Amino acid sequence: MGLIEALRGTRDILPDEVRYWQRVEAIAAAVLTRAAFTEIRTPIFEQTGLFERSIGEATDVVGKEMYTFKDRGDRSVTLRPEGTAGVVRAYIEQGLHAQGSIQRLWYLGPMFRYERPQAGRQRQFHQLGVEILGTAAARADVEAIAVATDILRQLGLQNLTLQLNSIGDKGDRQKYREALVAYLTPYRLELDPDSQDRLARNPLRILDSKDARTQEILKGAPSMLDFLNPEAQVRFERVQSLLTDLAIPYQINPLLVRGLDYYSHTVFEIQSADLGAQATVIGGGRYDHLVAELGGPETPAIGWAMGLERLILLLKQLQPLPPATVDFYVVSRGEFAEAQAMLLSQQLRQQGFTVEMDVSGSAFGKQFKRADRSGAVACLILGDTEAETRTVQVKWMATGEQAAIAQSELSAYLHQQQPALKATQTADKG
């Protein structure tokens, strides 16, 4: 039987890389908690109709990219291709809208799209997202952008650009759609094949094309901003003013429309100059009619999603983490020594130390070599002599100094050494 491999478009996240994920997740959770967002967790699969109604049947996501199948009850089920639809479904079904307050929600988890795999883009990918439901205020748009910016700044990222646009309300977009189709129709045969197909069913998506000739043609296209009604124009100016107040720089990009049908008014992307062609780290926008379209009450909302694979790729490139280290590596040999080693390891872990216990039972020489490779600050050694005398040998790896300490006094001794221990850890990380 041949080797079973991971499916194309999926990948294993190994321990060294998981540390980057944990760092992102911890910083994001801290930033969002301080901004009074609460976490929500929704199912990985939903009824297919949820995504057809929310994302739009004319989109590439629904038309080409969803993982859809029939379950044993002959129901059409889809692995979620994005997070907003599931959150909105839960918001309606669980009665969150009836609580009478603005809901600030965030989520984290895997999504699934049948796309061509490439660096930072997989068929199973992960998103961290934010949704603010229950307010049409321009301040909510800016708050969503502000917390996204805070997360990226706390991660230490630079060379970031906020791309901003307004796509107005449904009436504005319909007028713009007609104008865009009228402009592009004479160029139809010069457009890339995907854009030719979109011209009839979803022309605004042509603005996302990366084809060089299509982009050249779009330079002369009408601007969405010229089709905003007066109220939408004032609203967009308010968003810009508030961003300026918060010292969040931005660029107006009239070609930015985002890829899903449910967006209205503010849309935005945060891009990194360090990522090349696939530059978008965070994308989102306002969706004031989605809740009603899915059977809930009229509820204005805004949200964004962060692609974690792309973000981790950026962090690994710009901020390599030092090797993981432990405080103590415990070496033992012999039945009684091994039992005492286990007890001491548990006690030290409960006191907040990071302890790796060698459980191989191999010769001391091999265990010492693993202790050297572990990056531990000190090696704790128990053999037959230590087991009989209830002592432990503490060897400080940086200096080679070694001391015999009574097991009953080990905790107090190590806590006395904590300033030096922390200094060594800081030096290792630097």
Describe this structure in words.
With 430 residues, this protein is of the alpha+beta class. It has two domains: 15-168 and 228-318, Bira Bifunctional Protein, Domain 2 (BirA Bifunctional Protein, domain 2); 328-429, Anticodon-binding domain (Rossmann fold). 41% of the residues lie in helices and 21% in strands. The chain has helices at 15-34, 48-55, 60-65, 84-93, 138-154, 170-184, 193-201, 212-218, 230-245, 290-293, 308-318, 335-350, 364-374, 384-389, 410-416, 418-429; strands at residues 38-39, 45-47, 67-70, 76-79, 103-112, 124-133, 160-166, 251-252, 264-272, 280-286, 301-307, 328-332, 355-357, 378-382, 391-396, 402-406. The strands form three sheets. An eight-stranded mixed sheet has the order 1-5-6-11-10-9-7-8. Strand 15 and strand 16 (402-406) form a beta hairpin. Helix 1 (15-34) runs antiparallel to helix 5 (138-154), helix 1 (15-34) packs across helix 11 and helix 5 runs parallel beside helix 9 (230-245). The protein starts with 14 loop residues before the first helix and ends with a helix. The mean pLDDT is 91.
In the CATH hierarchy, what is the class of the largest domain?
A: Alpha Beta
Give me the CATH architecture of the largest domain, please: 2-Layer Sandwich
Strand-pairing-aware structural class: alpha+beta
N- to C-terminal separation? 47 Å
CATH fold group of the largest domain: BirA Bifunctional Protein, domain 2
Radius of gyration computed on alpha carbons: 28 Å
Number of strands: 16
In DSSP terms (H or I, runs of 4 or more residues), the helix count works out at 16
Q: Write down the overall mean pLDDT.
A: 91
- CATH homology group of the largest domain: Bira Bifunctional Protein, Domain 2
In total, the number of domains comes to 2
**Helix content estimate:** 40-55%
Q: Globular, elongated, flat, extended or rod-shaped: what is the shape?
A: elongated
Unreliable stretches: none
Task: Characterize the largest beta sheet: strand count, sense, and whether it forms a barrel.
Answer: 8 strands, mixed
